[in-house]
Structure formats: structure tokens, C-alpha cells
Amino acid sequence: MNRSFGRGRTAVLCLLAALVLAVLALLALGLGSAWFSPARILEGLWNDDRTIHLVVVNLRLPRILMSILVGASLSVSGALLQAVMRNPLADPGIIGVSAGAATAATTILLLAPGLFSAVPLFAFGGALLACVLIYVMAWKNGVDPVRIVLSGVAINTVLGAYTSFLQLLNADNLSNVLGFLNGSLSGRGWEQVYTVAVYSAIGLLCGAACIKSANILQLGDEMASSLGVNVNLLRILISAVGAFLAAATVAVAGMIGFVGLVVPHMARMLGGADYRSLLPVAALLGGIVLLAADTVGRILIPGMEIPVGVIMAMTGGPFFLYMLRKGGKVRGN
Length: 333
Description:
This protein is mostly helical and 333 residues long. It has helices spanning 2-30, 38-46, 50-85, 97-111, 119-138, 145-169, 175-182, 190-209, 211-217, 221-226, 231-253, 259-271, 275-299, 308-325.
């Protein structure tokens, strides 16, 4: 009965989140420097209006879809990494995974721009390498979640210093990189949507396959080991999926912080800690949060666009401090 109740609650939460996301997407289509009502958009599409086709179909719709996919991927990545660390304050940006992806992507953009089409692969390689370094540094008769977090912070700092040094050496060629490091969806078109859709679909499916393993890790190392589970192997596999999702988003949208921290915590408060509920709710909430942040960035100051990464930092930072004030523990969810 409890399981049926849990499934019903998850279904209701997902349905409500999907409805909110659909309404928000419809509003975002009309909002901007030029306002279009839903009726005007439908009429323009029916009559093949060039203005509607250019602004709504070619500019706003790809950006909306990109926001949803990136938000879902970052949220699921954060939720999986929190299971690995058994720490609700874990996040792809905080523990160095996003920094690894950003470092690799920035290196390609500045030193080998001809390989631009391969940036997603290099970003994943950078994120995976960061994960490997984190686990090597954290390994001592096994992997302890506290050492993983501390190692991640250290890796994040070193990679951030390297990225800053690389920018100093290429100060005349930073136009693309600055937007990338601030996290922006401006100028993203259908080509980027297709790219992130493929990577996100693969990562989200792999994330769904990790639900049972994530729940097992929440029981603690001793309990999981008593069930015959190789805890270290599970951590490595789940971390690889989280790194893949983070890398896919960094490659197309740049560094967007706090989504992987804030959204899983919201999903946990709404649907509980069971990953059968947590992951789908987090994915939908991630799309809502990032789409809302990007829309606010587009319309907050007329004639000027604020990168979505800046909006998330302005709102996610205070939320992070709130979590610390509430007594977020290093261990356990």
C-alpha cells in the first residue's frame, strides 16, 4: 500500500511539474524584446509569418528546449553525485566535475578552435579525468565520501587556476570563452539542441538505470556491503554517469552552477529521498528552474541580456547559504 501511495504521489508531482513546465515554456515563447500572445504565435505559424518564424521558431524555441534539457541533465547529475557522496551539498560544480569539463572545453576553444565540433567529447573526457583524479586522491583503503568532497574542492581550485592562466595567455581571444564561463544560452540554435538532446537522452537513461544503486548507497557502506554490493564500484559507475551529464551541459551551455545543488534538494523535500521519485521530479524541476532563470535573464533589463549562469549564481548562492544555516551534514541525506 505504501509503495502504491509513493508511486501515486510521484505521478502527481511529475504531472504538476510537467504542467508548470508547459505553461512556463508557452510564456517564454511570447516574452522578450518583442511580445507575442499565444494567439498571435498560433496565427503566425498558421500563416507562415516570417517574423514569428524567425523570432519564435528559430530563436526562442531552441533556447527553451535547451534550457529544459540542460536543467534536467544538471539536476539528475547533482542528485546522482549526492547519492555517491551521501551529501546533500554535493554538486557537479562544487566537487570539480564541471570544472574538468570546462577546462577541457576552454582549452579546445582557445588553443584548437578547429576542433569545435568535438568539444562535447573533450568536455566529457575532462569531466571523467577530473573524476579519476578525485577518486585517486580520495582512495585510502576504499573511498570515503568526505575525502571525495575535499578532493573535489582541491581539483576544482587547481583547474580554475589553470583556466584563469589560459585566459591570461589568450587575452585577445576571449569573446566566446567569457560567455562560456558565465554560462549562457544566448545564440543557441537547433544544431546545439540536437547535440544536447542526444547526450542528455543517453545520460538520463543511464541515470534511470542507476536508481536502484543510488538507493542502496543511501543505506550506508556497511549495510550495502552486507547486501553483497561492491560499494566502490557503484560509486565509480554512478559518478561516471553524473560526469557524463555534467559534461554534456557544460559543452553546450558553459558553466551553470547551483542547479545540481538546489533542484535535487527541492525534489527531495517534495517527493522524498527515494530515487525512484527523486530523479524524475528533479529532472522536471531542473527544466522549470533553468527555463525560469533564462527567461528572467532575457527580460529583466530591457535591451540587455543577463547570462543564465549569473542568474543562477545570484539565486543559488543564497539558497546554498540557507542550506548551511539549516545544518546540512557532510554525511547522509
